[in-house]
Amino acid sequence: VSVDSAPPAPPNCATTFSPADLATDVSPAANLTWAASGGSAPTGYKIYFGTDNPPTNIANGTDLGLVTTYDPPGNMAYTTLHYWKIVPYNGNGDATGCSVLSFTTGASYSGSYNVGTGEPYTSLTNPGGIFQALNGGLLTGNVTINITSDLTGETGAVPLNQLAESVLDATFSVTIKPSGGPRTISGTSTASGMIILNGSDN
């Protein structure tokens, strides 16, 4: 009786990437994560990461060992396109054909920002509003949000998360206040509230 078995093989390319390919407004303090995707089991991962393509100028095939997360050195550059590739490996070699992914980091925030009709931001909690912008950026100082008109279409869809800061253990604050007179914030929320603070406490 003879039994045929598949020859040893390298692992498949990784999957389930975060940030997702082509993501925007990624926090400059974000970590990169991924998962194995079947095939022969990996015994480690190499990362190629940078602002060049193919990516090499931050990490050029760095062997991370058997982990599925990477913390870039320091904070990534603001509003910058980054490229990355993960290559799983085992004793049979490297995975082949793994794709280069990309994402763009968010901006840095410090100072005063107006929210209201005709302003750069027209909402606090809606997609595209200032909460979403702050969540994807990096605080480099205290932020004041001036509400310059009534906000009557808020949905509560985007909470204000715990924000990344440019200085370790900094306590930069976010202040929301009316400007030019009393202001009303109202709408219909499908979430657990209208203004949700998700870990933000400064």
The helix/strand class is mainly beta
Helix content: under 10%
**How much β-strand is present in the residues?**
35-45%
Distance between the termini: 71 Å
Describe the structure.
By secondary structure, the chain is mainly beta. Helix content is 3%, strand content 39%. It contains one helix and 16 strands. The chain has one helix at residues 130-135; strands at residues 15-18, 23-26, 32-35, 44-50, 59-65, 69-70, 81-90, 93-94, 101-105, 108-115, 138-147, 151-154, 160-161, 174-178, 185-187, 197-198. Strands 2, 4, 5, 7, 8 and 9 form a six-stranded mixed sheet that branches. A hairpin with a 2-residue loop joins strand 7 and strand 8. The longest helix has 6 residues, at 130-135. The chain is elongated and about 75 Å long. The N and C termini lie far apart (71 Å). The relative contact order is 0.16. The mean pLDDT is 93.
Keyphrases for this structure?
single chain; 202 residues; mainly beta; 6-stranded mixed β-sheet; 3-stranded antiparallel β-sheet; 1 helix; 16 strands
In short:
The protein is built from 1 helix and 16 strands.
Helix/strand layout:
Layout: E1 15-18, E2 23-26, E3 32-35, E4 44-50, E5 59-65, E6 69-70, E7 81-90, E8 93-94, E9 101-105, E10 108-115, H1 130-135, E11 138-147, E12 151-154, E13 160-161, E14 174-178, E15 185-187, E16 197-198
